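Section 5.1 Outputs to date
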Amino acid sequence: MRRWIKSLSLVMVALVAHSNADARETVELHAKDGLLVTADVYEAEGQPDAPWIVLAHQASASRGEYRDIAPKLNSLGYNAIAIDQRSGKSFAGVFNDTAARAKEAGKSVDFVDAIPDIAAGVDYVKSKGAKKVILWGSSYSAALVLLIAGGTPDLVDAVVAMSPGEYIKGKSVAEAAKSIKAPVLLVSPPEEAAQRKPILAAVPHDEKTGFSPSNGGLHGSSALIEGFSPNPQPHWDVVIAFLRRYAPPGA
């Protein structure tokens, strides 16, 4: 166990060292309850009309989950903003500033409390003139982005949910999915497919895709991280195909 933890730490340090060379801007957004939300903004060079992807992290994590993913999205022609939600800690050596502020202010940091933080990311990209907005969540935030898309059906143009499930106390993701209008992609490792299927089945239209790799995978967006995930390419293939179909750059 100790050897595995040490190896994981080395991988994470390597990921951060690689990603620090990538262009990004760290900004602070205002959630509706007044909390400052830290986010990393990645803009695709020379593509002012590129679609925007709002990236939300998994439990106990931070915007660092996307330090390797967001630059690749840029290379594919997408702008991205990776936010720190108030429910989280750190990822790849990147500490969650929003969570620290929320705790200092005595605010609740349950999973559901992060909805205003994700909404702040959507508000930001819309203020930048985004023509298309994709909402992307990981683990508990995969559940949240589906709740948001169901609760405000015209808010976004597509939804990517990495390892979604019924993680939110007092909320039914499957029930919310019945009102989703946007195309959706739900991705899970094989052992979590049973959690994904009733949510996908509840989406009332045919612009929906469910995916599990044939040879395993990781929980959440981490499945896409090169050098960390055992097989990122099948995940990238399905994500790219979905984005190209429903929110192509330049469209």
